[in-house]
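lol ok so funny story. i was supposed to be doing the assay writeup but got distracted and ended up predicting the structure for this chain instead. priorities right. anyway since i did it might as well share w the group, maybe its usefull for someone
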Amino acid sequence: FFSKNELSKILSCYSLGVSRGNWKDYAINFSKNEASFLMFKNTVGFPDCVLTKSLRNKKNKFIYKLQSNHHSKNNNFNHIDELLIILKRKNLKII
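and the output, tada:
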């Protein structure tokens, strides 16, 4: 699951993408050891970006993953804030 604080941060980042015209829809998926937030450019099709929170087996800590159509060097993060910084950079457009 996503905590209330994490979900608030994710939705804030998502709303920036919506206001810039990058995303139009989202979905949230849950399983036993994982929660995912999917962002779509269109209401039909594959997600443009997937944020995943997974449980590490050894220390009961969480790891955050970013899967995107855009390539990034590091897809695994220890804190959600690190992941959202990368995602917000992708939303910036130079005109």
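The first strand starts at residue 25 and ends at 30. The mean pLDDT is 83.
back to the writeup now i swear
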